[in-house]
Request: fold
Amino acid sequence: DPSVRNDAAQAIGQIGGTEIAQDLISRLESPNVEVRTSAVTALAWIGADAKDAVPALIKTLKSPNIAEREAAANALGSIGTEAKAAISELVSLLDSESANVSGAAALAIGRIGGIEAVPDLIARLNSEDFYVRIQAATALGEIGAEAKAAVLPLIELLQSPSGDDRKAAVTALGNIGVDAKAAVPELVLLLDTNSYVRDNAAIAIGQIGGTEAVLDLISLLKAPDVEIRMAAAKALGGLGADAREATPELVALLASEKEPESRSEVIRVISQVGGTEAVPALIELLKSPNAQERHH
Reply:
């Protein structure tokens, strides 16, 4: 039963340790593909402690079995930086006949920190397969600031009609950080779209430090949709003291919001942004019958 084997592999991997890893490595030579794949899956759960498996897993990337290749890519990604020797072989899988294998290879490159493969990952942002595009974007985000060459291609991906594409691009841009400032105007626009992308855009603005967007975010605090108001507030909170000019508007927002959850979010943001203008309103909250508000 495949599900039983997967559960067993997970359990073995979670127990972990280099001794168990060595035993699993020996099973990669089994003539039974199911045994090999289960061993690879367990090695993925072990992670960095399975670094001695890297040469065998690189060999497994050449298996004719799709599931085995995918599992090997996942395991190498879980091992992380100790698997850098696998980068070139993983790059060769980015155009696999299986989107699952290509996607797993892309994500593994990101988790390993394959800076040298950034151009290859950027190229896959234009893949016809949505899963490959998403995993390539995610991988670039995993690499972070060293993937700054991807900023413009990721901004282009923000124009995709697919919410999955946009969400992956937003998250990647946030992880790239300050070098992704060119994306901030587009991220602000995404605060006015569906909730699937909105929260990630708010977080990304804070990660990037898009202080030039403060005025636009302040204007969104007056949006008729409460979710847009809260997303704009969250983005301002992520900017911290750099968004202090928004404090009066945040205090006004606190006064106008009626839902306890929204009020709590605004209070949290005010505490992040700071500013003496907020002190009277915060002191008044000490009298609130809502214990959560008093706590904030």
About this structure: The mean pLDDT is 90.
